[in-house]
Specification:
Belongs to the PurK/PurT family. It catalyses: 5-amino-1-(5-phospho-beta-D-ribosyl)imidazole + hydrogencarbonate + ATP = 5-carboxyamino-1-(5-phospho-D-ribosyl)imidazole + ADP + phosphate + 2 H(+). Pfam families: ATP-grasp, PurK_C, RS_preATP-grasp-like. With 376 residues, the chain is α+β, with helices and mostly antiparallel strands. It has 3 domains: 79 residues, Rossmann fold; 69 residues, Dna Ligase, domain 1 (2-Layer Sandwich); 190 residues, 2-Layer Sandwich (D-amino Acid Aminotransferase, Chain A, domain 1). The chain has 13 helices and 17 strands. Strands 9, 10, 11, 12, 13, 14, 15, 16 and 17 form a 9-stranded antiparallel beta sheet that branches. It has a 4-stranded mixed beta sheet with strand order 3-2-1-4, sandwiched between helices. Strand 13 and strand 14 form a beta hairpin. The longest helix is centred in the middle third of the chain and has 17 residues. The chain is globular, with a radius of gyration of 21 Å. The structure holds adenosine-5'-triphosphate and magnesium ion (2 copies). The site of one magnesium ion has 2 residues, from loops.
Length: 376
Amino acid sequence: MKALTLGSGQLSRMLCLGSTPLNIATLAYDVREQRVVYPVSGDDTGKSFAEAIAWCDVITAEFEHIPEDVLSLADASGKLRPSADAIRTGGDRRREKQMLDNAGVASASYRIIDNKAQYQQAIDELGLPLVLKTAKEGYDGKGQWRLKKDTDIATAWPEIEQLLNSSQGQQAIVAEKFVDFDRELSMIGVRHPCGKIKAYPLTLNHHIDGVLALSVALGDNANLQQQATEKFAAIAESLDYVGVLAIEFFDCDGELLVNEIAPRVHNSGHWTQQGCYSSQFDNHMRAIFDIPIGDTQLIQPTAMINILGEDHIDSDIYCLEGVNVHWYGKGKRAGRKMGHLNVSASSYPLLIDKIERICTLFPAAKLSNISELFKL
Ligand code: ATP
Ligand code: MG
Ligand code: MG
């Protein structure tokens, strides 16, 4: 079995690592450099994109912002899973909001903005505070504006206007009502081509400066897990989805609102590499190759800490019980996702202790007050 991933970053690398035990060989297409590479080493294969498409049995994607010509070529082969439409929905907030509305899944109230009149109308109708997001290309909180007070309205507009004008009709802004959430959760789940769905336990996510810093697999919360699973199923079915899908939620006093979806494996699901018998990478490959889906139950309390902008960690971290270190083989750059740590323990109090120990050995993670952050 042979797979080609669109994108050649860390998600493609971990999909490759998850594929090997299943006897699936993988290559990756570096969309920016237009090269087909080996996903772990990054070495050039010498194959063209067309040759790689012909070589593989299944094509999948590690990100949703794929140039339309690349996506169309992959789609035309009939090998793409999930579908081009599912990927386009995840890559354009206008489509995403429409899909959520059609599927009857609640998200923040919104308006789509293409010009100044619509900008003013959105502000009048939704009121402040507002979060403005570019319809396409945004990630890690980039391409967003916060309108909190009246003076922000005039300050933000010139930048937005310039973006809209320079995009030749490709870009728009989605204005969302600011959600006063208690915490952010995500659900990673998988849908098999036969329609069967399995979800992992909900994950609690903590962001610093718009970037995911820490994820913790939630233990027992049957009510939230059920709510999230129902929304997951409604979304996955409406997209006729195949593979791993991630959904980010705002938890508002026990009611879940969808923030956004990602039609792929997700940073907040990396803990499944050690926290479950079948990781998100393993299950994604199984689903797209029509292999039965594996166990998504939590083995023991598990968390993930992102390593951002660092290519070195204290050697004592390698020796800690229940800790796994994952590097992505990327060049060091400030704030860049360079790797992550998965941390497991036999109970949540012990997990918190272990994360706190890691924080003292790894101050660059900027994590503090762990038990406060996550009222487990
Ligand atoms: P990602 O890297 O997860 O793809 P992104 O750039 O697509 O991120 P969002 O997830 O939409 O952006 O938003 C980034 C963060 O901004 C969210 O995790 C949340 O903390 C905050 N946020 C987004 N939308 C809202 C909202 N409507 N109300 C309040 N906070 C919000
Ligand atoms: Mg996003
Ligand atoms: Mg997000």
